[in-house]
Amino acid sequence: MREDLLHYIWKYKKYPVQGLKASKGENLTILNSGSHNHLSGPDFFNAQVRIADQLWAGNVEIHVNSSDWYAHNHQEDKNYDNVILHVVWNDDVSVFRADGTEIPTLELKNYIDSQLLGRYQKLMQGQRERFINCGNDINTIPKFDFIHWQERLYLERLEDKSKVILILLEECGQDWEKVLFVLLLKNFGSKINGEAFMQIGLHLDFSIVRHLIGKPLELESLLFGMAGLLESDNSIDSYYGELRKNFQYLRHKFNIDHSIGSASFFKLRPPNFPTIRLSQFATLYGGNNNLFHHLMHCSDDEIFQQFGISASTYWDSHYNFGKTSKGGVKRISKKFVDLLTINTIVPLRFCYQKHKGMAQPERVLGTVQKIKAEKNGIIDSYRNLNIEVNSAWESQSLLQLYNNYCSNNKCLRCVVGTRLLNLKT
Fold first, then answer.
1. In sequence order, what are the residues at sequence separation of 6 or more whose Cβ sits closer than 8 angstroms to the Cβ of residue 10?
2. Domain boundaries, given as residue ranges, for the chain
3. What is the predicted pLDDT for the residue at 354?
4. In sequence order, which residues have a C-beta less than 8 Å from that of residue 238 and are 6 or more positions away?
5. CA distance readout (Å), 163 to 64, 157, 350
6. Three-state DSSP state, 290
7. Residues 6+ away with beta carbon under 8 Å from 339
8. Do you know which Pfam families this protein is assigned to (predicted)?
9. Scanning 39, 265, 295, 324, which has its CA 20 to 30 A from the CA of 98?
């Protein structure tokens, strides 16, 4: 028996509403199950129950065994003084409040339908056999219900990202333009260099960036230097020497740390080398004044136009300093712009609009519905279960489903899991 199943049984009243008895044989009537608390403290707040002829209002705590009350030291926590009912699977010991009064207990094991327990056991056994617990049955869920669940999942994903953005906004002194700068810089670094690039953005006084608008070469020098790409004293070539000279000048002028991190080339394809991405980023910001305003208000088609830039001309024939190549102009690809839109622009739009009291979730949903789905192992595994994944909205919702529900066995908080649990055999 798992505690999450007991929460589900209590919340959705999967027990007979008539004929319940408390631990001392008193008649028990559940008037209100209360509101589910997912934070610290009792499991359900503001419940109402009638025990014998006495009406009680307060909180409900749920455990597998009554003795778990003491195992979790609730007897020493004042937050549990207002518990009016202890709901358990197995009532193995009497439980008392700090004032010595006994807490009434409802033992569930003799009230629950064996078919419900069998369906739950079948669902949870999937974690040892399949990609996700419901892998064999997920396609039995009505399409309408699954699509509606995906919409909720995607908005939940945006809410999660908004929490991170608002923390970043606080760190950036309520400067939305700097928040965009940091988030874009992080995503230009992708998985390998994302954290290092983000630290550069956080440590860099954004007034310096504003000062360098219209000066992409100076901005490229600054970013390369802070990423540890200008460490060699050797004169690799004239362009390297110019960048290094510019960085030394800017470092002393603005009192900048010599370098924040060390950009990596490991396991990266040449178009994703930090040299190329930082040069593209410098061109983007070097030629854009008030980029945040443009990206928050432009149309979906105009987003791609905003990123229609390339690395500086030196990189037309290079991927790294001093080594010529036949790469050609290093433009930002449509696929990369799509990733920036999914991971930076749309979450930032959602958060900014909500922060300003003008939320338009249908607009951000419309944007990601126009973008092709990402490709990764998780999405491929869902496709193998015959789940349709065409747009970024669908792939993003499935990533939220897997990371927040499937991989944590939170089946009873998922529409799919609860539907399967309620199927009649």
1. 33, 43, 44, 60, 62, 87
2. 3-112, 172-332
3. 93
4. none
5. 33, 10, 11
6. coil
7. 187, 374
8. DUF2851
9. 39
For 55, phi and psi rounded to 5 degrees?
A: -90, 130
Tokens of residue 88, six digits: 């358990």
Q: Which residue has the tokens 């944007």?
A: 367
Query: What is the C-alpha to C-alpha distance for residues 108 and 11, in angstroms, rounded to an integer?
Result: 13
Written as six digits, the tokens of 112 are: 């629950």
Quote the tokens at residue 337: 């712009």
Tell me the residue type at 41. G
Q: For residue 169, what is the enclosing H or E element?
A: helix 143-171
The tokens for 297 are 């208000």
What is the token pair recorded at 400?
Answer: 């939220």
Entry pTM: 0.87
Q: How far apart are the first and last CA of the chain?
A: 21
- pLDDT reported for residue 407: 92
Inter-CA distances, 296 with 75, 306, 363, 388, Å: 52, 12, 12, 30
**In 10 A of CB 337, how many CB atoms?**
18
* Sign of the torsion formed by the C-alpha atoms of 53, 57, 61 and 62: positive
Q: Which of 164, 171, 230, 229 is nearest to 204 (CA)?
A: 171
Q: Are the C-beta atoms of residues 368 and 154 closer than 8 Å to each other? A: yes
DSSP sequence for 41-54: S-SEEEEEEEETTE
Structural Rg of the chain based on CA atoms: 28
